[in-house]
């Protein structure tokens, strides 16, 4: 099956291609040779992690070398801990020692952690050099590799330091997804489901129809789900590149409760996707009272999440603790907790919900777990 191409066209930025399909990794070098920003780079630095390196580093290196590039690589530890100022510092030092100049380029080979970290070092080294995303998780293919948010974590919170820098190219090689475990797969599915609810009936009902194919990782269905998600995200980012126009916030659907669950349950107990899916269920239910969301949406969204391997979580906590965790989230403004609430599929609102209303709904949600 030939690769699909989506063009990301963001005002004020050079448009870039996202290529999606099996074999895209093997073609990385020849595509890089066609990119004006990369073709003449004297040196490419692949940044990857310790899980991805044994699986795909050789293929990436071979393809780039065959196209005539000089290639070096850095392997960082796998996991969120690598998104740190310390690891970024080690990479900056290594870049300087390798003698990378302003016309060099970075290739981020991995999931969202590698993508965010690599984008951050590329956007800051010598005040910014080109970078290419080669996402290898479903989440990175449908979300983090597109849109230009880069960053590292601080002890005080996730993604507190970062930049906006769009990649020059995104190579989403769907065959790399074969080695992804169920947990990481479901994380990507949660973001696809999120995108479909915010986007349109067309995307949502297509996904509902394709849910079994996606769960079975059928390549045609997976590639189309990635392409639809990328088209959706590109449109959102084109409308609000720096999350300053009240549009990009829609990408946080499900994340208000989701982040609180991750914090209170302890990071890693539930995957990000499982927590976001639970947050989507809660937000839709809250929306019934606050913005008139239809009960059918709540039910159909629940069915979609179930079929994508994102069942309702067997976890609850005191409503006051959950509200307090929401208030500590960096997305909270002036002590107000804001939710992206779907009025309908394809129609949403960012609403600052009163504490009393949140508590009432959290209690009902908690009670529904006990039954
Ligand atoms: P991740 O990068 O940690 O990858 C998950 C795990 O899968 C890691 O252990 C990784 O080594 C492994 N892995 C990666 N590819 C694999 C493959 N093909 N086969 C087997 N194992 C593989 O996590 P993620 O879910 O991809 O990304 C999460 C990160 O993305 C978070 O830091 C989050 O903040 C960030 N994020 C950024 C944006 C953005 O817009 N920049 C959007 C969403 C999320
Ligand atoms: N995933 C959040 C964003 O890109 O804005």
In terms of topology, how is this protein built?
Layout lengths: L3 E5 L7 E6 L6 H5 L11 E6 L3 H14 L4 E6 L8 H13 L7 E6 L1 H13 L5 E6 L2 H7 L4 E6 L2 E8 L4 E5 L8 H18 L1 H15 L3 H21 L15 H11 L6 H19 L4 H13 L11 H10 L8 E8 L2 E7 L1 H16 L1
Parallel strand pairs: 2-9, 3-4, 3-5, 5-6, 6-9
Antiparallel strand pairs: 1-2, 7-8, 10-11
The structure holds nicotinamide-adenine-dinucleotide (NAD) and glycine.
Structure description:
There is one protein chain. This protein is of the alpha/beta class. It has two domains: 4-179, 3-Layer(aba) Sandwich (Rossmann fold), CATH 3.40.50.1970; 182-368, Up-down Bundle (Dehydroquinate synthase-like, alpha domain). The protein is built from 13 helices and eleven strands. It has helices at 28-32, 53-66, 85-97, 112-124, 138-144, 182-199, 201-215, 219-239, 255-265, 272-290, 295-307, 319-328, 355-370; strands at residues 4-8, 16-21, 44-49, 71-76, 105-110, 130-135, 149-154, 157-164, 169-173, 337-344, 347-353. Strands 1-2-9-6-5-3-4 form a seven-stranded mixed β-sheet, with helices on both faces. The protein has a two-stranded antiparallel ribbon with strand order 7-8. The protein has a two-stranded antiparallel ribbon with strand order 10-11. Helix 5 (138-144) packs parallel to helix 6 and helix 12 (319-328) crosses helix 13 (355-370). The structure holds nicotinamide-adenine-dinucleotide and glycine. The site of nicotinamide-adenine-dinucleotide (NAD) has 29 residues, from helix 4, helix 5, strand 8 and helix 6.
